[in-house]
Amino acid sequence: MSTLLSDGGAVLTRQLHKARHAPALLVLTQTMPITMLLFFGYVFGSALAMPGAEYREFLVPGLLAATAANGLMTGMFTAAQDAHRGVMDRFRTLPMSRGAVPLGQTAADLLTTAVSMVPLMLVGLAMGWRIENGLPGALGALGVLLLFRFATAWVGTYLGLLSSSEEAAGQLGSATFILPMLSSAYLPTAGLPGWLRTVAEWNPISAVATAVRTLCGNAGARAGADAAWPAAHPVAGALLWSALLLAVFAPLATGRFARGGARERSS
Amino acid sequence: MTTTYAVLSEGLEKSYGPVHALRGLDLAVPEGSVCGLLGPNGAGKTTAVRILTTLTAPTGGRALVAGHDVTRDPAAVRRAIGVTGQYASVDGDLTGRENLRLFARLAGLRGSAGRSRADALLERFGLGEAADRVAATWSGGMRRRLDLAAGLVTRPRVLFLDEPTTGLDPAAREHIWTAVRALSEDGTTVLLTTQYLEEADRLADDVVVVSEGRVLAGGTPARLKARIGSRAEVAVTAREELAGAAAVLDRLTGGRPVLDEERLTVGVTVLDPGISLPRIIRELDTAGVPVTDARLRPPTLDEVFLRLTRAHTATGTTGREQETAA
Q: Which residues are listed as membrane-spanning (chain B) (predicted)?
């Protein structure tokens, strides 16, 4: 266990060094959610039946949830890059803990996400979003978001290790932008056709977005009487979804790393 | 006398579905020696290295590295080995120093021990000046040296070098060779795969020629060359004298002399090491064949390699095999 944490710490340091050497990439990933927030809030917000100010209050928690879900994409990129550039094989020949690489990578991702959530929240506040439930609400919301980010990063790591090339991981990773669209992150689900509404209400991103709205006392927190279980119990739903994803994908990713990713898939 | 083997494999097999990369590979590398693994592309060299370095599991047979079974105790194998090659590389997004410190820390060298190990290796490989630049910006030769340094962080007893100089210019290659020789003198066992026969000739104590997942031949470069025999070539003054020279050489060597009517030469393979150049000239002189030039040279390892692998392919082994190092 102590080797796992120590080796994981070494890999975390490596990820932070990488980020330091590529500041442009870091700035881009940090400002992208802010750009989307402004774009959705003022472009879409002006065309909706819902008043713009109310929509922006609804949107900020949704965008925070969508940013948390981006752990999927980042995890895939990071894992696929290592797997196909030979660094992973170097790690695998070292007498180090097998779980340390995925753990260090997801932990580093968690750290950079925690930092990027702050400016995103500040822009949200400037746009009229309010945290009605004070500091406990804000911290609770941040906790739900970061736990979900950590969980999706593990899912991404597993998928990245399975991908046949960096390009394949890039394509699939970029396609994950559609997932928040099939949730209550950007728009309420009430108006969706029946089956699509069920999909959206069971989407973990909906649970996370609604949990943040609930914890911060925002518009859109209350689900309709006929809503699915996670939509009606968003905080419990968000926590359970995250726990489930972690329980399934952390062992899968660690096992896949130990056996060597896609290259050894046929073995 | 007992020899301790740093690398020992018996009947090592690896199949990827219907593709057989290794079909019973036997290796025995004595401790402290340098073994060169030669073979055409797809012979199974890389697969063998991947199994011996615990990167992939064999589908049959067994292998011991530094006395530890690669499948039963991979952790012990990893503590004893260093790997450098086309696949286990360094992180181009980090500086040289960050790379070595990371690998040192992961190899269990905490704190200042890891830092000083990293710094010492950077100095030893002449990378001190570039150490704080991102490795992706380095030249190919420097990156390869960093790669080698990374393989040495653990002070390995057995070092695996997978095509360590492929794509390098002669000066950079010489640099790597010098480093490998120094390691070998310090007692490190080295197993290297290479496409360059010159590299094996210069570095290896023993050469193992692999083809289609099996060992074709093994031994010192000199012994392998002796198996193929030396090449004698004599030049005569006129076309009419070719037959006479050929007859002498045929009687002497039992080989089949080849006549070149353009260059006025006769060539023949000499297997018997007792046949010297003076003796060839003496016999020709006695027979009254005037000789203008004569030479006897040992075969290059390239010729040995081509002869061995060509003979093997000609025996008609079925099934195409390929190295699964996509």
A: none
Give the residue with greater pLDDT, A179 vs B326.
Answer: A179
Instruction: Indicate the pLDDT class of residue B324, thresholds 50, 70 and 90.
Output: very low
With 90 as the cut, is the pLDDT of residue B85 above it? no
B1 or A180, higher pLDDT: A180
Q: What is the mean pLDDT of residues B187-208?
A: 90
**Banded pLDDT at B302 (limits 50, 70, 90):** confident
Say yes or no for a CB contact (<8 Å) between B89 and A87.
Answer: yes
Phi and psi dihedrals of A258, rounded to 5? -60, -35
Closest CA to A213 of A54, A96, A70, A94: A54
What is the per-residue pLDDT for A34? 92
Nearest to B49, CA basis, from B32, B29, B31: B29
Q: Which fold has domain B230-297?
A: Alpha-Beta Plaits (3.30.70)
Domains of chain B: which residue ranges? 5-225, 230-297
Residue that the structure tokens 């949704």 belong to: A62
What are the chain B neighbours of A267 within 8 Å (beta carbons)? Answer: 16, 56-57, 59
Rounded distance, CA B272 to CA B254, Å? 10
Q: Structure tokens of B161?
A: 């070098």
Gap between the Cα atoms of A72 and A83, Å rounded: 16
Inter-chain contact A93–B93, Cβ cutoff 8 Å? no
Contact criterion met (CB below 8 Å) for B171 and B152: no
Q: What is the DSSP letter of B188?
A: -
**CB-defined contacts A:B, below 8 A:** 83
User: Which tens digits make up the pLDDT trace of B203-216?
Assistant: 999 999 998 899 98
Nearest to B90 among A7, A90, A260 (CB): A90
Contact A22 B93 (CB under 8 A): yes
| pLDDT 10s digits, A11-20 | 999 999 999 9
Nearest to A93 among B55, B90, B134 (CB): B55
Per the CATH hierarchy, to which homologous superfamily does domain B5-225 belong? P-loop containing nucleotide triphosphate hydrolases (3.40.50.300)
Measured in angstroms, the CA of A96 and the nearest CA of chain B are apart by: 6
Distance from the Cα of A71 to chain B's closest Cα (Å) equals 21
CB contact under 8 A, A10 and B86: no
Q: Give residue B99's identity as a one-letter amino acid code.
A: N
Alpha-carbon distance of B186 to A91, in angstroms, equals 25
Residues 6+ apart with CB under 8 A from B140: B167, B168, B172
Residue in A17, A93, A96 nearest the CB of B53: A93
CA–CA separation, B203 and A29 (whole Å) = 49
Of B75, B79, B89, the CB nearest to A90: B89
